[in-house]
Design goal:
By secondary structure, the protein is α+β, with helices and mostly antiparallel strands. The protein contains 9 helices and 8 strands. It has helices at residues 2-14, 32-39, 68-74, 90-106, 112-139, 247-260, 264-292, 296-321, 330-354; strands at 21-25, 58-63, 84-89, 147-165, 168-182, 189-195, 207-215, 218-226. α7 (264-292) packs parallel to α9 and α8 runs antiparallel to α9 (330-354).
């Protein structure tokens, strides 16, 4: 019996590090102008531009009580399967969010989402640390007690994160506990796991009666049933549906926001939005040129030219921004250089597309006329 318990204890301790992390989507870290220095650009790290028009998920793993190497092993970057992760140590993430919330409040921005993410992160660490502690204590006992209980809960939503388990990738539904009917359970919220990519087994907004067991395996649900009807969401009226902006309208709006920016954070965010706008416009020009290339060789040459140009743009940004190294104005400089160079490149590519066939002749002088 002791040997069996020792075996279980070793297995539990070996998997503690896998529970010492939390996966968040890239946009949970707030404005890109604030987050890029911590977690990089919001597109796949093996590409040199954004993922406009494509699904390009980037997730951030916040980890604690384990090394960076362990975290990367648990969440490897996989180009073939399009899985991209960034890694941030817990204390660095907490410091980042506290600073971001303070700066957003000073700039009179709504910091509620960042504050909620900070609270969620702190609660997740507290919860997982508590669960790990309970698991180790249970494994070191002579037996494995189980705690059956039932409760009424409201399904509040689905976490955007997904995480790896021994049974594959999972997602988590968040349930707010309204009342514990039988047994004991002290937490106000509880999770409900289901396989990633499958239909959620519970409906958001519905109230259920759950039966569950808490033992050394964690929470296991034995049954659940709906106990009230959900109020159907009202279909928005046509007048409520906003019309999509044209590129010209979007640029005009972004320029107005940039001109109206007063604080440094406002200017950083506005310049970042303009940089992303010009990147999207650039990709449209690139797509047109690729479609017009006469053969595979011409396509390869253009791609090589654009790759070299993007490397130049990145180096140019670093060069100009280094003058303000560590300063709050550094993102503004980076984004301004990024936007200016990208806008100029778009004009060059437009000229290329506008030149008639035989583009290679565009710079050749006309033949001199001779007098008869």
């Amino acid at each position: 019996m002791k040997a069996f318990i020792a075996f279980i204890l070793f297995g539990l301790l070996a998997t503690v590090s896998h529970a010492a992390d939390m996966v968040l989507p890239y946009n949970a870290f707030g404005p890109q102008s604030a987050s890029y220095e911590l977690i990089g650009w919001p597109w796949w790290q093996w590409e040199s531009c954004n993922c406009e028009g494509r699904e390009c998920a980037v997730n951030v793993v916040v980890y604690w009580n384990q090394t960076l190497e362990q975290t990367k092993k648990n969440y490897p970057v996989d180009k073939e399967n399009k899985q991209d992760f960034r890694y941030v140590e817990y204390s660095a993430a907490i410091e980042y969010f506290e600073k971001l919330i303070k700066e957003m409040k000073e700039a009179d921005f709504d910091a509620s989402e960042s504050k909620n993410t900070l609270i969620q992160l702190q609660n997740e660490k507290r919860k997982k640390t508590k669960q790990q502690s309970k698991s180790v204590r249970l494994a070191s006992a002579d037996g494995f007690p189980s705690n059956p209980f039932s409760f009424v809960g409201v399904v509040e939503g689905i976490s955007e994160k997904s995480y790896r388990t021994i049974d594959g990738m999972k997602q988590n539904m968040v349930i707010r506990i309204v009342e514990v009917k039988t047994g004991k359970y002290s937490e106000r919220e509880i999770g409900f796991d289901f396989p990633e990519g499958t239909k959620p087994p519970l409906e958001i907004g519905r109230t259920y009666l759950f039966g569950a067991v808490y033992d050394r395996h964690g929470i296991r649900y034995t049954e659940w049933q709906k106990i009230e009807k959900r109020e159907d969401k009202q279909t928005p009226k046509p007048a409520q549906i906003e019309k999509k902006e044209t590129p010209e309208q979007e640029l005009a709006r972004l320029n107005r926001e940039a001109e109206a920016a007063m604080s440094q954070m406002e200017m950083n965010i506005a310049s970042g939005n303009l940089a992303l706008y010009w990147e999207r416009m650039l990709q449209k020009e690139e797509a047109e040129i690729l479609a017009s290339c006469r053969d595979a060789k011409a396509t390869a040459i253009f791609k090589k030219a654009q790759e070299a140009w993007r490397e130049f743009r990145e180096a140019e940004m670093e060069f100009w921004a280094d003058e303000s190294r560590g300063g709050s104005i550094q993102p503004l400089i980076r984004y301004t250089v990024y936007a200016n160079l990208t806008e100029k490149r778009i004009q060059e590519l437009k000229f290329y597309l506008e030149v008639p066939e035989g583009r290679h002749k565009r710079d050749q002088p006309e033949p001199a006329r001779t007098n008869d």
